[in-house]
Amino acid sequence: MAPRLQLEKAAWRWVETVKPEEIRLEHIELAYRVNLPACKRATCRRNCKGNPNCLVGIGEQAWLGDIDENAFHNIDDPNSERRDKNTFVGLTNLGATCYVNTFLQVWFHNLELRRSLYQSTFSYPVLSTEQYYEPQSICEHLQYLFALLQNSNRKYIDPSGLVKALGLDTGQQQDAQEFSKLFLSLLEDTLSKQKSPNLQNVIQRQFCGQFSYVTVCNQCGRSSALPSRFYELELNIQGHKNLTECVTEFLKEEKLDGENRYFCESCQSKQSATRRIKLHNLPPTLNLQLMRFVFDRQTGHKKKLNTFISFPEQLDMGPFLEGKEDQKCVYELSAVLIHRGISAYSGHYIAHVKDARTGDWYKFNDEEIEKMEGKKLQLGTEEDIAETVKSQARKPKCSKGYHCSRNAYMLVYKVQEEENADPSMTNVEVPAFLQRLVDQDNHKFEEWCCEMADMRKQSVDKGKAKHEEVKELYELLPAKDGR
C-alpha cells in the first residue's frame, strides 16, 4: 500500500471503535493529521498530500535557488542598442521605408559623394549643450544622417527627419527606382547652388554618362544623332538570362516604319529608318536598373518579373562603347539591391554593399547588418522566397565570378581603380561642425544608457530585497512548538 494511503487509513482507524457521541478533539486532530511532524526541507521531492504540515514544494525553489536578476525587471539591456566595434550603423524602418534605407546605405558607401556632401556649406546654428540640432534642408538632413551613420554610438539611427523632409508616406511603399531618380535629381539641383564647381557637379561626375539616339534614314542614308545624359541604364530583363544580353538589347537597332516612320530633314518627308543607342561616356558609378516591375496589360496593374538574371563581379563595358579607347571601362560590382517578394506592390527591400575600404561585403536589412564571410557576396538566402508552384524556377548554375538572382532590381558597379591608387581616398573625415552634432547625439545616447541602467539596478535591488524578505519567512517555517 502507498505511504499516503497508509497514513489515511491509520488516521481514520478510530472510526471503527468510537461511537459518534464519543468523538473528541483528539479524534479530529488524528483524522486530519494536525499533529504530524513537519517534513524536513529537502527530504521530499514534492509537497506531501498526506501531511498538512509539509511545507516543501510550495514555491520556495524560486526564492531559495539561484537568483535570476532578469526576473526583477522588464527593461532591456541598453548596451544591446550600442554599436559594435568595426561595424556599420543600421536605419530604422518607419513602416514601409525599407526601400529608402537601402538607397541611403548605398549612397553612404559612395565615398566621393559622402566627401562632397560633407564639404557642402549650409547655415548651422551655434547651439548650447541644452539645445538639440534640427536640420532644415534636405541636404542638411542627409549630411547629418551620413555623419551619424559614420560616427554614431548607436546600433541604428532614426531617419524620420529626412523622410519627413522628403514628404514620404511612411505607411506606403513607393516605387524604389522612381525614388532613386527623383532623389538624385533633387540632390543635383541643391548642390548646383554651392559656390565650389567641384561640389556643383558632383552628381554628374559620379553618376552621369552620355549616349546618343542615332537615327539613319533608309531612303537617303542620312544619319542624325540626339545626345542625351543618363544617370542609370534601364535594362529590360524579360526573355534574358544574363546582364550581357540585357545590355545588348538596350543598344540594339530598332526599325522605324509604318506609323513610327521618322521625318527625315534631307528627304523632307517621313521615311522608314533605323534607330539605336550609342554609348559614349560612362560614369565612375554605373547604376543598372533591372526592370523587374512592368505593366501588365491584361490586368492593368504592375507585376514583378521573378526572372533569374546572372551578372558578373567584374563587368567589361568596353565592347559596348563607341570610340574613346582611353576611357576606363572595366567595372567592379559594389552593390546589389534586392526586392524580396513576388508582388510589385509589397515585399521587403535590402541591400548588399561592398565596403570600399576593406573589400568586405555587408547585408543591410534596416536595423540589422550582417557581414558576409570571406569577402564574398552571398545572395543565397535572398532567393529562398516562397512562391506558387507555377512560378517556381530552378536556380541556374553560376560560373565562377558570377552571381544569379531573381530578386535583384538594381546593380551598382564602380570603375576599377588602379592598384597604386592613393589609399587616402578611402578615408572620409567628418567635418568638425558635424562631429559636434554627432557628439551631442552620442552624449544623449550615453545619458539614456545610464538612465536605463539605473532603472534596471533599482528594479534589481528591490527584487533582491524582496527575495531576502521571503527567504527570512521560509527560515521561520515550519512553526515550532508553542508558536
From TrEMBL:
Compartments where located: Cytoplasm; Nucleus
Keywords of the record: Cytoplasm, Hydrolase, Nucleus, Protease, Repeat, Thiol protease, Ubl conjugation pathway
GO terms of biological process kind: protein deubiquitination; proteolysis
GO (cellular component) term, any one: nucleus
Domain of life per record: Eukaryota
Family annotation (SUPFAM superfamilies): Cysteine proteinases (SSF54001)
PANTHER family linked: UBIQUITIN CARBOXYL-TERMINAL HYDROLASE, UBIQUITIN CARBOXYL-TERMINAL HYDROLASE 48
Family that this chain belongs to: Belongs to the peptidase C19 family.
Record's protein name: Ubiquitin carboxyl-terminal hydrolase 48
Organism from which the protein derives: Sander lucioperca
Lineage of source species: Eukaryota, Metazoa, Chordata, Craniata, Vertebrata
Gene: usp48
